[in-house]
Amino acid sequence: MNNIKSLQQFLSGYDRGYDRAMANGKVQLMRLKNIAITIDGKQHKDKNLFDLFLDHQNDNLFDDYVREHTPVNAKLLMQTDYVVVFVADGKYSRFAGVYQVFGEDFKNKDKIFVKVRALDVFRQFGGRILVDWGGMAAQRWLQWFKNDKNIIQIDEGIIRMMIPFTTYNDVLLSFKELKNIVDTDNAEWRGKLKAVNGIYGISDKSNGKVYIGSAYGNDGIWGRWKDYAETKGHGNNDMLVEIIKQNPDYAWDNLQWFILETFSLDVTDAYAVERENLYKLKLCTRRFGYNKN
């Protein structure tokens, strides 16, 4: 069993807005009954709520259920900034997602639709975390997160707080994932990244800008990416240094790392730089991105 027993502990560090709301006591927990459901007047008799969640993680149907409430319940929900949503599973509950709450969206007959936004960074954990809702608290569908929950079951891949390595083409790491891999000296990732040099990119989710870099040392991509993990995400790249100097949390909130091309460890510096420059031209990162040269 992992050493992460607290749900509060597990969910921290993925989204700065959520973390600030937690610190200010503005996060609630919502537990939805796993029953046949009606959304905006339409019945879904063939599915219970958890089936609906599993089938519709990539669209808005489950989100619509989260935001539809009676006036009394909507008023309670709109007191919070974020809500952590679960689907009941006996005396336990399964994690479904974290939503930012913005207030009332519109009314429809006897229901109020609250404007919410699912935080994408938490979608990877949907349905994969089981918590103990606990005693009389199980009767309360909405409660403040000061009532922490113990994690009962969690996928092994999540226990290590990282995604498994599949292929170089599939690599896409948030700063938290990259830093965790480096800080724990994860053998699988270290072995794969240290075995190759290559061309990599860093994309900024807030504005679409990209940085293109190359690795051509004895420690491969691992050696270069280790620099980013140990420098708050800037890796001594001039433009990223300036951004992170102004906002030390910038990499945590916005940056992600990926691999464009791999080389053998004996690649020449000249060839690696030539390929790096080609990608800069293709993606216009000198004009529109984070490359200065």
Keywords for this entry:
32% helix; 293 residues; alpha+beta; elongated; 8-stranded mixed sheet; GIY-YIG endonuclease; 2 domains
Please give a structural write-up:
- With 293 residues, this protein is an alpha+beta fold.
- It has two domains: 7-159, no CATH class; 168-283, GIY-YIG endonuclease (3-Layer(aba) Sandwich).
- Helices cover 32% and strands 31% of the residues.
- It is built from twelve helices and 14 strands.
- It has helices spanning 7-11, 16-23, 49-55, 61-67, 71-77, 156-159, 175-183, 187-194, 220-229, 238-246, 250-254, 269-283, and strands spanning 27-32, 36-39, 42-48, 68-69, 82-89, 92-108, 111-118, 129-132, 142-144, 150-154, 172-174, 197-204, 210-215, 255-263.
- The strands form three sheets. Strands 1, 4, 5, 6, 7, 8, 9 and 10 form an eight-stranded mixed sheet that branches. Strands 11-14-12-13 form a four-stranded antiparallel sheet.
- A hairpin with a 2-residue loop joins strand 2 and strand 3.
- The longest helix is centred in the last third of the chain and has 15 residues, at 269-283.
- It is elongated.
Could you give the topology of this structure?
Blueprint: H1 7-11, H2 16-23, E1 27-32, E2 36-39, E3 42-48, H3 49-55, H4 61-67, E4 68-69, H5 71-77, E5 82-89, E6 92-108, E7 111-118, E8 129-132, E9 142-144, E10 150-154, H6 156-159, E11 172-174, H7 175-183, H8 187-194, E12 197-204, E13 210-215, H9 220-229, H10 238-246, H11 250-254, E14 255-263, H12 269-283
Parallel strand pairs: 1-5
Antiparallel strand pairs: 1-9, 2-3, 4-7, 5-6, 6-7, 6-8, 8-10, 11-14, 12-13, 12-14
Helix pairs in contact: 7-9, 8-9
